Amino acid sequence: MGIAAFLHGAGFTGSGERYLDSVVGIEGTADGSVRVLVSSTEFGQGTNTVLCQIAAEALGIPYEYVSIAQADTTIVPNSGPTVASRTAMIVGNLVRSAAIGLRQTLQSDGTLTATYTADEFIDACRKHVAKKGVLRSLARYSSPEGIYWDDVRYKEKPTQRTRGLFISPKYRWT
């Protein structure tokens, strides 16, 4: 009998993600569809597909109603570099958060009910854009609560026990 264990991180180690300060967006359009706004590039690894799938699932609409904007930071926020699994895990989670924010915007202004169909969501997007002009939600990376990577301690004296990770139950570092 054997046991194998594996741990795979995502994103940049240390305080790299905090320094990148990545932002993503989701926008509802005049035709009722949704666009994912990220600077992550597609080069064959499925970035466009997975990020649209994440948005569709978070919004409860079919994948076909979601598209992705061109990865050009003159029109989309800087979501950081496209590297390894970071795109799906870090950027994907930000896409999910932005999609939830978009849904909450529609629900808070009364355009969308708590439970809805895909057609009702599309209609709510159309109405919101027609009335207010813009329907956009942004999400910014923040470190997990209670976890702070101490770059100074890590560089000076890394230990097997801490590995530069300082967990504080009292303070939230952002």
Task: Give keywords.
disordered C terminus; single chain; elongated; 4-stranded mixed sheet; two-stranded antiparallel ribbon; 36% helix; 14% strand; alpha+beta; 174 residues
Task: Describe how the helices and strands are arranged.
Elements lengths: L15 H5 L2 E6 L5 E4 L9 H13 L6 E3 L17 H23 L9 H15 L2 E6 L6 E3 L1 H6 L8 E3 L7
Parallel strand pairs: 2-3
Antiparallel strand pairs: 1-2, 1-4, 5-6
Describe it.
By secondary structure, the protein is α+β, with helices and mostly antiparallel strands. It is 36% helix and 14% strand. It has five helices and six strands. The chain has a four-stranded mixed beta sheet. Helix 2 links the parallel strand 2 and strand 3. Helix 2 packs parallel to helix 3. The chain is elongated and about 55 Å long. The termini are far apart.
Low-confidence stretches: 156-174
Shape: elongated
Distance between the termini: 44 Å
User: What would you call the structural class?
Assistant: alpha+beta
Order of helices and strands: HEEHEHHEEHE
C-alpha Rg, in Å?
19 Å
The whole-number mean of residue pLDDT values reads 85
Summed up, the helix count is 5
Number of E-type strands? 6
Strand order of the largest sheet: 3-2-1-4
As a percent range, the share of strand residues is 5-15%
Helical residue percent band: 25-40%
**Sheet with most strands:** 4 strands, mixed
Oligomer: single chain
